[in-house]
Design a protein that fits this description.
Blueprint: H1 2-18, H2 36-41, H3 43-46, E1 50-62, E2 66-73, E3 90-97, E4 110-125, E5 128-142, E6 152-153, E7 180-181
Parallel strand pairs: 3-5
Antiparallel strand pairs: 1-2, 1-4, 2-3, 4-5, 6-7
Length: 182
Amino acid sequence: MANVIYGVVSLFLLLVGCATPPVDSINQAPPGNPSLFEVREHIEKSLDRRVRWGGTIVAVENGERETQIEIVARPLDEYGRPRYDGESLGRFIARVDGFLDPVIYARNRELTISGIVDKKLTRPVGAYAYDYVIVRADVHKLWEPRAQPSYHRDPFYDPFWPGRLNPWYPWSPTYPNYPYWR
């Protein structure tokens, strides 16, 4: 009887140890992840499709049961974090169940969502009527703010060499942060 119990427990531990965790939908795009442009152009074909998009928060609007987040879409890196290279892919609205604090989910913070395409909605951006894609987000990740580069005084800087030989050395284009380093 004890051998049977040990066998069952061993089999259970083996199966639990081999189980794979669920795929993180923020780090990995769904198969055939359509772009925001494709969905805006062909909304009827894209309804109920899973997407993973991200970008910079423009506005947060809380309702009774959900929060709408207006996002300027940006390309994502291999981890799902929006790249900040100045390129905009358009705008979309993510609907998240529950309350999200607008102080935490503030303007210019980076957010990645994964969810289902719900519909298209026309709202003004200034005086322009803009077509937003609405995504019902079931997973979202608010990214930590990016660290700002800091400059430190170079401990090996010698004010007498070679700057004393070349008076234009500090303003040389090859040394833009002279005498500081990152």
